[in-house]
Design a protein that fits this description.
- The protein is mainly beta.
- It has three domains: 11-76, SH3 Domains (SH3 type barrels); 85-145, SH3 type barrels (Roll), CATH 2.30.30; 155-273, Alpha-Beta Complex (endopeptidase fold (from Nostoc punctiforme)).
- The protein contains four helices and 22 strands.
- The chain has helices at residues 11-14, 146-149, 155-167, 186-195; strands at residues 18-20, 24-28, 37-42, 46-53, 56-61, 66-70, 74-76, 85-88, 92-96, 105-110, 114-122, 125-130, 135-139, 143-145, 179-180, 183-184, 212-214, 224-227, 230-236, 239-244, 249-254, 268-273.
- The strands form six sheets. It has a six-stranded antiparallel sheet with strand order 17-22-18-19-20-21, with helices on one face. Strands 6-5-4-1-7 form a five-stranded antiparallel sheet, with no helix packed on it. It has a five-stranded antiparallel sheet with strand order 13-12-11-8-14.
- Helix 3 crosses helix 4 (186-195).
- The two termini are 26 Å apart.
Length: 282
């Protein structure tokens, strides 16, 4: 299995078997409707076939997470380049038929959806093409081209970008297996905010590449703290942002049991950072 690190890696699509054809698709633990949701993927996301069972397919996402998906939620992937690809970065981005707000809605795309830029611009609007077919217009401030999203930047700037993006999700409700503004769990939150900053990390509470271990004293903003079956994003100043069932959603808590906003979390397993020479392009 190839471990992708940058979202503009053309192999994400050239090696993909399918892409998501609906705005938001659920991945399940088993090939049945009442199975547990384990993840969510947005329109245009590339997927890699593991097993084909007709109405259900066992697939792996581009960030390495496996799950069962309904065949009606995907189409074969024909995309093989990233030059004109862009990602929706706002909570939702409306694709309209014409470049004005009273135009008919074609599709409402959640954050981390992929679309193609057609090149035309009109007063704050960009003409785009859905990877599933059809074209329309979206506001320029809702999307960013992948080449721009992954531009080299200083480590402190990248860390701040991740933390700022993460704070935008404060207050989103908790949803097991969720990875969108409709609801999210802890690993869904952490993987999504890294993705919206141009980097791919594994979507799970498991400590895994591209993270490397650091000590508690070495923790910096945007590093992750791994617990038993749980993960949180370190904000600095002894506080974390996380998606918690007891909180009811995404919130901030202290790591200091003496503080009023302290929340007891599962057993600590490790501290990890993405910011090391093997993966960082500065």
């Amino acid at each position: 299995m190839i471990e992708f690190e940058q979202i503009n890696d053309s192999r994400l699509w050239s090696l993909a078997d399918y892409i998501v054809s609906v705005p938001l698709a659920d991945l399940f633990s088993e090939a049945k409707e009442n199975a547990a949701r384990v993840d969510q993927v947005c329109m245009g996301s590339p997927l890699y076939l593991l097993e084909d069972h007709g109405e259900w397919l066992w697939l792996r996402t581009y960030y390495g997470y496996p799950g069962w998906i309904r065949s009606k939620d995907i189409i074969p992937c024909t995309q093989d380049e990233t030059e004109n690809l862009a990602m929706v970065l706002s909570s939702y981005g409306d694709v309209l038929r014409e470049p004005h707000y009273d135009s008919p809605l074609i599709e409402c795309l959640p954050a981390s959806s992929f679309i193609l830029l057609n090149g035309e611009k009109k007063e704050g609007w960009l003409e785009v093409q859905l990877l599933t077919g059809g074209s329309g217009w979206i506001r320029t401030d809702h999307i960013k081209q992948l080449s721009e999203l992954t531009r080299p930047m200083a480590e402190d700037e990248k860390r701040k970008q991740i933390v700022d993006k993460a704070l935008e999700f404060k207050g989103v409700q908790y949803r097991q297996g969720g990875r969108s503004l409709q609801g999210m769990d802890g690993s869904g939150l952490c993987s999504l905010v890294y993705l919206l900053s141009g980097s791919i990390i594994y979507r799970d509470a498991e400590f895994k590449y591209p993270f490397v271990p650091v000590s508690r004293d070495e923790l910096k903003p945007a590093d992750l703290i791994f617990y038993s079956g749980y993960v949180a994003l370190y904000l600095g100043n002894n506080h974390v942002l996380h998606a918690s069932g007891p909180l009811g959603g995404v919130g901030i808590n202290s790591l200091d049991p003496k503080e009023n906003d302290f929340l007891s979390l599962p057993s600590l397993t490790s501290y990890g950072t993405f910011f090391h020479p093997k993966v960082m392009i500065l």
